[in-house]
Structures are given as C-alpha cells and as structure tokens.
Amino acid sequence: MIFAPRREPLAKLPTPLLDLARLGTILGGPRLLIKRDDLVGFALGGNKVRKLEFFLADARTAGADVLITCGGVQSNHCRVTAAAAARASMRCVLVLSGATPARFTGNLLLDQLFGAELVFVETRQERAPRMEALAAEFRAKGLRPYVIPLGGSTPLGAYAYVEAVKEFAQQCRLVGIPVSTIVHASSSGGTQAGLVVGCLAEELPTRVVGISADEKKDDLGRMVNDIARALAEQSGLPAPRKDQIEVLDDYVGEGYGVPTAASEEATRQFARLEGIVLDSTYTAKAAAGMIDLIRRGRFKRDETVCFWHTGGNIALG
To answer: Is the CATH number of domain 17-45+153-315 3.40.50.1100?
Structure first.
C-alpha cells in the first residue's frame, strides 16, 4: 500500500535534537535530550505546524476557502491553523470552549492577530456540533469549508509525527544515541499516536510516554489507540498493542491551563538551567511529569530519555 499524502511546507526542518546536560546533571538520572519542535519556525512553532502541512495541502486539494477547527482557549492547534489560513488566503473560524475572557492573552491574542473569527461555546461537547453547523451555513452560502477535528488528531494529522520520527531516528543514528523513552505533552492524542506508530515503523527501541494536559488517562489512551490503529489501517504501517500506549494523568492538577507547583518548578529549571521556555498549559506539565519520573527512579542512569518539546506560548498580552 502506498500512503503518501501531500504536504505544504510550513516548518523549518529538521528541528534540533540537543542535550539537556545541566538539567540531567542536577537531576542525577539518565542522559536527557530535547527535540525542539518549539523551533519549527512558523507561527511561533510547535507540534501542530507539522500537522498543518498535511491539512493545508488537503484543504487546497479540496478547493476549500474556509478552515474551521476547535480547541480550548489556549489551543496551540487553533493558533497555527489561524496562521496557516492567513498564509493561504483562507478564512478561518475557531470554535473555542470556555467563557469569553475579559482580556485576550497568549494563543487567544495570536488567534485574533492572525485574523481568525472566534466562536465561544460553554462546553467541550458543543465544539464538534458547532463546527458542523458552521460548515453547513458556509456551504449554504456557496463557500467550501474544510473542518479540521480537535487538535488535528486524525490519521492524517498523526502521520505528520510518523514523518517526524523518521527525522528523529536519523538524528539519533547519526550520533549513535539509542533513546529508550520519549516524554511529551499529550492532549488530543494525534501526536502521541504518530510517535508510537513512527517508532514501530522505524524499529526504534523507544517507548512513548504521553503526559496528559487535561484528559483522564483512560480516555486519552483510548483516543491515542483509536487514531494509531486507524492510521495503521490506512497506511499499512505497524499498529501498536494497547500496552505500547502509555498515558499518565498524574500531573494535570486542577485542570487544563491551570499551573501546578510542579509545573512552575519545571518551568524555572528549564529556563535557568537550559535557557528553554515552557508554557504552563502543555509543556510545563509534561516536563514536571518527566522530572518526577526521574526522581522516582523510572529510568536507569545508562538510559537516554528525550523530552519532545511540542511548543506553546507563555502568556502574551
């Protein structure tokens, strides 16, 4: 089976794979690396840029003139979709769950700056129906909407991270570093699904650990499994077993976008030891999870662990 979806270049690739030497020394655990997808080079970067390369190409093929997607108010995916639409001269509508804030900051401010139309709904459950209703309204007006599901977490979006693993595997082989574990922020499941399938396809001895930014681990685990299996079925790539999908929800705290003491500590450590900025919604909680796993002895000292920096923005305003 030939599975070769079109992509529209947005990202500056490959992104760097670097040592976290000072942080690793302070923690006294395994060797630490970081995959800098925050430096992907479009719309302030992040993992969603890789996905939008495929969605934007697919939307153009479909003759779309409106991009519609959804997320939380600080969604990285929504920010990148808005920027991609602006670049492609397409209209963009974002359906965001939560109350309309009195002051727009962070990704929400950027959504507005990129020219997206913002539609707020009270609950997450309302997002998908509202997107479909908006799409129907646009079609009735003679427009051609293209709906991207939450987080770009579909087999097509996940495939972007199969491609990312090819890049990562080549970097690891060039320097002779076998990575035992990838740790990253997981929210809607597509990135993790792509990483898991990609590691299997590249025959890497690498386990992927997703640190949930909001969802319960059982719910997110099912999402990852469903996307990974659908991707495998469509592409002919290896499908993971359920025990190859690991999601941890111990670091969510009070909820989505709410910092924890551990995430704030992780933010300080990455900044002061490595000069790397994390965001409070996603990567800080993932970093807190990785640091806690190291402190609890999850990894051996002779292992190499990679923190995959999926991007995100500090509060701008």
So the answer is: yes
